[in-house]
User: Which sequence fits this backbone?
């Protein structure tokens, strides 16, 4: 009945939403992105807030019963640090200092959108105590907070990178495929040049060109640009192949014979037909960007301290000792893993839905 | 004179690499001259691969010709870039109704695109009005506007394609095997529709087909194409009575299979055919 006026896309959306795993992944990603967007509010501390007395402090236990076993509202103890015979830090709960966990507290200041200033945070403890849900890093910064803030960079770099490289890829592929002949030939040779160089070396080479005195925002942007600079060629080739066959389709010829401009035809009639492939490719290539950023940060060429990204949070876990004594610093890796997995599951599901031919192979 | 084609040539090349020299692969249209007068429909027949579609595409400037001119309305050649007006005056309906409409567009968008190109500024209300009236004239109901091409049958799609062409208010409508993929009854309907529209819109058709029966019904003159050349042009009746070129004769013989009982040319023709058959065993009834 209502099936009548559905476009291909609406039908595909319907069957996508019937895939349980994909919907779960969509929710997980939604939560991660929400966490990153509302990091200011959700994180108990700002990404810079450090307390050296809590270096590599283990995840704080939240208690609901005091020593005598009486039920209480959730609270945490203060921590005291001592050193054992190997000079390893040993943290002990200081039963004398009790800090109730409070909600909607005034914490570190932040400026959403750079305008108003606010201090409201979802939860926290009195400033004398500290709460580290996922433990602390070497400088006593709250890992949970830094993961939320890091998500801003790690999660957005994929989207931005993909947006840029796909615009380039679609346009170049569209033009090469639509015009064919010499234009196609030249553009494709350029693409191949990019594809011949191993991606990571190109990444390093381009990164080394970025001036050292860039501030973190500039570094972030240059990383996005570099990543998308590498990523567009593969897409352009495939889009070009699709456009080559699309331009012979009669509706394209019809538009051309009516006098629609070339750009109009490419944008309105040719590229939209590559959209199901493009959506799949977008979903499946976002993880690549996230991983590439992590890799760059891991070797110290990405986002610089004190700013957090999942990659540079993970770069703390480069030594076996740190991993042994403070295994929670691996948690950012878990976030990367989950994100990458979610994008892949969604991408696979989209492929099943949008491109049923592939599934049968 | 609506359209005059002079010595038109179009070759397709093999290998257009960056460094490879290109070689002629197919002479798809090889020196075609043809005149089309206003109101006198021309049928273009010929076997598969004889270059009919290529000729049609040359006329609407989908291809640039190697050589030759297409003169529109006696207004001189528009060899390089066809002006906007001329583009509008010649419209084409394509062979395959299943692929000549963009499957992602609703009929409304398909028609709107044509309207936006016809060069006039019109209000949204008038746009809807025009779209509805053109749909009515091709025999589709109003509700069609909101539907996608895949929701139509082949015949209905062909009507949408014709409606789109009509919105541009063309004077020459090229129908490239526009009914070939439809079943006989629908073909019949479309042909009747075309005859009706011709009166309402003062159109001239260039009708490309294999189907001699339809050409006979619709066209005053027939041009026969063979291997990129027009080998015979004649008034319809004349051609059916007295086909001159061997290929034309063969074509008529092949068509004869279907309509043995009703044609006047048969006796005349079979006689001739046998003559040819004796001399050249290559020409055999298929
Ligand atoms: N884009 C192209 N590139 C190369 N060769 C082509 C191209 N288009 C057509 N040809 C060749 O040109 C010749 C004429 O093709 P055309 O499509 O005009 O034939 P047609 O008469 O329309 O045939 P049909 O009745 O099957 O539609 C054929 O041999 C075909 O192989
Ligand atoms: Mg053809």
Assistant:
């Amino acid at each position: 009945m209502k099936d009548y006026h559905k476009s291909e896309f609406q039908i595909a959306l319907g069957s996508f939403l019937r895939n349980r795993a994909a919907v779960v992944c969509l929710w997980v990603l939604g939560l991660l992105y929400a966490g990153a967007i509302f990091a200011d509010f959700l994180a108990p501390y700002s990404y810079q807030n450090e307390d050296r007395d809590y270096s590599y402090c283990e995840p704080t236990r939240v208690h609901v019963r005091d020593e005598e076993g009486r039920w209480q509202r959730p609270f945490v103890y203060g921590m005291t640090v001592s050193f054992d015979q190997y000079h390893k830090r040993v943290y002990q709960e200081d039963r004398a200092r009790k800090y109730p966990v409070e909600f909607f507290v005034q914490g570190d200041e932040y400026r959403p959108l750079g305008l108003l200033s606010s201090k409201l945070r979802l939860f926290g403890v009195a400033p004398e105590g500290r709460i580290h849900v996922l433990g602390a890093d070497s400088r006593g910064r709250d890992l949970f907070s830094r993961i939320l803030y890091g998500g801003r960079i790690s999660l957005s770099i994929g989207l931005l990178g993909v947006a840029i490289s796909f615009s380039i890829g679609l346009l170049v592929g569209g033009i090469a495929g639509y015009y064919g002949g010499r234009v196609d030939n030249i553009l494709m040779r350029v693409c191949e040049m990019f594809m011949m160089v191993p991606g990571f070396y190109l990444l390093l080479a381009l990164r080394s060109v970025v001036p050292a005195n860039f501030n973190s925002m500039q570094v972030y942007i240059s990383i996005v640009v570099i990543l998308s600079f590498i990523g567009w060629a593969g897409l352009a080739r495939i889009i070009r192949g699709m456009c080559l066959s699309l331009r012979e389709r009669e509706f394209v010829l019809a538009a051309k014979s009516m006098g629609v401009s070339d750009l109009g035809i490419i944008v309105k009639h040719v590229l939209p037909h590559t959209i199901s492939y493009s959506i799949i490719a977008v979903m499946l290539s976002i993880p690549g960007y996230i991983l590439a950023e992590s890799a760059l940060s891991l070797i110290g060429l990405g986002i610089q301290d004190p700013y957090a990204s999942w990659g540079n949070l993970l770069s703390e876990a480069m030594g076996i000792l740190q991993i042994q004594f403070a295994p929670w610093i691996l948690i950012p890796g878990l976030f990367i893993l989950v994100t990458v997995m979610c994008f892949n599951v969604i991408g696979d599901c989209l492929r099943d839905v949008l491109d049923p031919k592939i599934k049968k192979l | 004179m609506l359209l005059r084609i002079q010595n038109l040539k179009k070759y397709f090349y093999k290998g257009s690499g960056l460094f490879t020299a290109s070689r002629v692969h197919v002479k798809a249209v090889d020196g075609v001259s043809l005149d089309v007068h206003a109101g006198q429909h021309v049928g273009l027949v010929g076997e598969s691969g004889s270059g009919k579609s290529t000729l049609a595409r040359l006329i609407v400037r989908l291809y640039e010709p190697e050589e030759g001119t297409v003169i529109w309305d006696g207004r001189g050649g528009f060899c390089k870039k066809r002006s906007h007006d001329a583009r509008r005056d010649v419209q084409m309906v394509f062979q395959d109704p299943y692929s000549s409409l963009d499957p992602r567009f609703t009929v409304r968008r398909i028609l709107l695109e044509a309207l936006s190109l016809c060069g006039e500024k019109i209000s949204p209300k008038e746009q809807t009005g025009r779209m509805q009236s053109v749909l009515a004239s091709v025999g589709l109901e109003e509700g069609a506007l909101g539907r996608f091409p895949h929701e139509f049958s082949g015949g209905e799609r062909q009507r949408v394609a014709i409606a789109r062409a009509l919105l541009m208010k063309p004077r020459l409508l090229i129908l490239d095997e526009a009914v070939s993929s439809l079943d006989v009854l629908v073909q019949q309907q479309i042909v009747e529709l075309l005859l009706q529209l011709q009166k309402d819109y003062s159109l001239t058709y260039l009708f490309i087909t294999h189907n001699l029966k339809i050409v006979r019904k619709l066209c005053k003159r027939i041009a026969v194409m063979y291997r990129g050349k027009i080998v015979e042009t004649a008034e319809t009746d004349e051609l059916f009575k007295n086909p001159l070129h061997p290929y034309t004769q063969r074509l008529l013989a092949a068509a004869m299979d279907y309509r043995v009982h009703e044609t006047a040319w048969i006796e005349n023709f079979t006689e001739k055919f046998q003559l040819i058959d004796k001399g050249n065993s290559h020409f055999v009834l298929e």
